[in-house]
Amino acid sequence: MSGDLRSQPEAWAAFLAGAALFNAGQWWEAHEVWEVPWAQADGERRHFLQALILLAAALHKRWHHGSTTHRNLYKADAYLARLPGVYVGVDLSMLRAEMWAALHDPDLRPQVVSRPPDSAD
């Protein structure tokens, strides 16, 4: 499959739905929504969705089960490292920093926000 998630309407809709759940702190639900397009994705799309699924799982395990391990964050980092710094409008460096902070502070909620491409792109 060619193109990123934005070129696939069903996958893009699932990404946005999962992002809304993730941003609201409904990490397990976001994880479930993202698994649908992940199962059919390849290449960068698959790496991106796998990272999001792992990030959602990390937060869910931390704040719903009390896990203090960060194994899922480290796994997600390995997938994110394969992607450009911004993917489908998501600033991955900022997301990684927000995730690390949120694993240590229950009041923080990292946000998955896709910004439209610059008109100069």
Description:
The protein has 121 residues and is mainly α. 59% of the residues lie in helices and 3% in strands. A two-stranded antiparallel ribbon has the order 1-2. Strand 1 and strand 2 (90-91) form a beta hairpin. Helix 1 (9-23) packs antiparallel against helix 2 (27-38), helix 2 (27-38) packs antiparallel against helix 3 and helix 3 (43-65) runs antiparallel to helix 4. The chain is globular, with a radius of gyration of 14 Å. The mean pLDDT is 89.
**Helix residue percentage:** 55-70%
The helix tally amounts to: 5
Strand order of the largest sheet: 1-2
Mean pLDDT: 89
Structural class by sheet pairing and helices: mainly alpha
Which of globular, elongated, flat, extended, rod-shaped describes the shape? Answer: globular
| Whole-angstrom Rg | 14 Å
Distance between the termini: 22 Å
Summarize the main sheet: 2 strands, antiparallel
Order of helices and strands: HHHHEEH
- Provide the β-strand percentage band: under 5%
